[in-house]
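#dry-run=false #mode=assembly
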Amino acid sequence: MMRLSTLLWALLVGASGYAMFQVKYEVLQLEDQLTRLTRQIGAGQEQIRVFGAEWSFLNQPARLEQLAKRHLALGPIGTQQIGRIEQLPRRSPMPPAAVAAAAPSSASSHLTAAPRLAHAEGVAAP
Amino acid sequence: MQALETSHTRLIIAAALFCLAFLAIGARLVEVAGFKAGETRLARLRAVEKPEAARADILDRNGVLLATTLDMPSLYANPKLIRDPERVAQKLASLLPDVGESEIAAKLASDKSFVWIKRPLTPSQEFAVNRLGVPGLQFEAEGHRVYPKGSLAAHVVGYVDRDGKGLAGIERGFDEILRDRHEPVELSLDVRVQYILRDEIARQIAEFNAAGGMGIVMDVNTGEILAMASLPDFDPNAPGGARDDAIFNRATLGIYEMGSTFKIFNTAMALETRTATLASSYDATKPIQIDRFTIHDDHPQRRWLTVPEIFEYSSNIGSARMALEAGTERQKDFLGRLGLLKAPGFELSEIGAPLVPSPWRQINTMTVAFGHGISVSPLQMATAVSAVVNGGVLHHASLIKRPAGYAPSGQQVLSARTSEEMRRLLRLVVERGTGKLANAPGYLVGGKTGTAEKVAAGRYEKHGLLSSFIGVFPITEPRFLVMVSIDEPQGNKESHGFATGGWAAAPAVGRVVQRMAPLVGIQPVDEESPEIRRSLMVDSLSPQGRTIAAN
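#status=ok
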């Protein structure tokens, strides 16, 4: 009887000792990992700052203007390019067959109208 | 027996305590090892060792980066560890072209144990210096202030010294906030509008071969500054190389006799104090002689002029007579209310205090009427004109973005009625008067030209001009003020030799309006539509009688 309980206790002590070391090494490992991650986060944040600065640098208006002049056929928006929704002509009522036939063309005209409206409305008021 | 029993009990108590303790430890072990409880919380606790937070960023109103702090390597040396300073200096000088060899050699030969060689290095320079493998050369990552937009808003953003202390602009005005608070500071500037303004001023300076120029774009209803430029300017990334003339902020620190743009205030004063109405007329048949001065007109009409005509033709004689009729006290009081007689409170420390006549004699009253004998900063002009056109409310100028839903609070300094009349007069100048070139079709620009002869050595110089235009749009319901001044413009062939405000500054304002209006969401209107014509009608255009009757 006495022997059995001693054995049990010895086992328990052994198990808890093992678990203790196990946990300790796990903690050490996690701490290492944590330090590494913190450093990585720091480096990542610094990288983001660098990229942010570079983005802002590359987006200098003077440079964008140069690039736009060289590569795009776009210019400043003239007053005649800006309209209001009310200025659009009302769509004329059409018979169903004609609607089906005209669907692609009306879709395309919708597409051309959309950016124009975007110019008028999509600009953020300060 | 008694003793044995006592010790037995004690033993049991002690054993029970130990058991409890072991159980607690065991439970905790199982919890930690088995369930990973609280891991995230522990990690958070440990993660506080963040890098030292850097000086806060400066952004424009749309979040565009104007100033940030980046870690960059700086090179320092421990001269005690360097055996052959001459040779090392020679090598370093070949890698770092902007530091002199002799300068490095002198530093390396000193008997200190720490000298900066260069702050900061580019990554490729760091690599090259590292490859030299010279002992005694060390790097240290230092936060370094970077201005990605270069000179674009140099005078507003400012710059810092090598140790990151703000020396000018917002960097100086907000030095402590930038250092302590780690949220970015959001300015009211809009980089796009800033570029447009700077670009157009630069174009006028080039066309008129001028010494410099400045401009302001202001939201008339809040006092927020969307753009502020002063040319020539400098690159805040390397402020050391800039000339004093370029560092100087003409828009806030410079004070100038603004010339005829002051007639905006003179006319508003006369209308507000009811010493004149739009139908009043004044004798402008011949120049006024007073003391040793002669007040004459640049566009002489040689007849009696109504108040709108005085404004439209920018008559000095008429303006002086209007001011005389109102009197010195009313004039002083009115200009004071508009904040023109003392230095304004502002976020920048580069603020010029106005130069006002003292004593304020009758002759001063007459010259102040057309903007001479009083010097104010362009910032004060923009603030005061905003108040005149926005319904009469004076808002302090600000470079800081107002939060969404901000209800501007200001001081009512003149009546809404006077403001409304002034808007009509300002439109008249652009439609028919001296400011035609500021017109931007569809955007209803109103404004006033001003051409001041600059004072040099106590005398007015005929050819040192400050030519300005202050425009407001859309004049029916003003949103923005655009002011441009060109310093010492020279007339050219296209301008028929003129270098006045109407020629040198007005075109820039017109173009700025045209380019910025779509960006800030202003719809063009049909200027000929009956509602607009009616709202801008000015009656009593000639002394002979009212030309426009309600039809």
